[in-house]
Inverse folding.
């Protein structure tokens, strides 16, 4: 109960700030609607909240979160429930965001599961979902020179998953088209939980570089 009370107290602070003290932002968002310029696709991990990390205001970022910040490949003919793909389509084709950020992070349990699938052999959904990351796992094993569990393999795989998600974004025809036209830019970010460091992938150098 104490945990829920903490959230209710937080809601009251939020409500006071945006609906009692200064109402202009939400009045505008209500009247005009949302027009976020950036979609952030992040892991569901409770420590890596895109709005908190980027200190964003309401209306600034359109957020999609899932286990291990994975983008599935474009699958038009598969009539499964494509929640991530639907959110991408809404952000890119309706909201016309100008940036997509894939936000990965250290100590990712989803990536750990990808590397150690035996832990979720009995799972209903997790194992199948993180399987999207297989190509990233193979690259990380090649890079480290071993598929045996290690911190180096975990770090390498967390970054390869970001690159795989960026690659899979380009399998969506309307993303490919807008990137080609220069109206949409893709970004890969990596957040370190230990010290709050943030890196971005530099496509020119092919490595993740510190942001600061
Ligand atoms: Zn994670």
């Amino acid at each position: 109960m104490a945990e829920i009370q903490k959230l209710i107290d937080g809601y009251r602070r939020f409500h006071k700030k945006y609906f009692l003290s200064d109402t202009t932002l939400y009045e505008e968002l209500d009247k005009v609607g949302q027009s976020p310029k950036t979609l952030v696709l992040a892991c569901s991990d409770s420590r890596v909240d895109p709005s908190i990390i980027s200190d964003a205001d309401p209306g600034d970022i359109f957020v999609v979160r899932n286990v291990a910040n994975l983008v599935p490949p474009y699958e038009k003919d598969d009539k499964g429930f494509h929640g991530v793909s639907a959110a991408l389509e809404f952000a890119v084709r309706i909201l016309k965001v100008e940036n997509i950020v894939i936000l990965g992070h250290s100590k990712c349990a989803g990536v750990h599961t990808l590397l150690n699938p035996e832990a979720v052999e009995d799972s209903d959904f997790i194992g199948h979902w993180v399987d999207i990351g297989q190509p990233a796992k193979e690259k990380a094993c090649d890079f480290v020179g071993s598929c045996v569990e290690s911190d180096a393999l975990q770090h390498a795989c967390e970054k390869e998953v970001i690159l795989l998600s960026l690659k899979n974004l380009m399998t969506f025809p309307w993303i490919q088209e807008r990137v080609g036209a220069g109206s949409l830019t893709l970004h890969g970010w990596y957040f370190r939980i230990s010290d709050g460091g943030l890196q971005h992938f530099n496509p020119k150098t092919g490595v993740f570089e510190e942001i600061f």
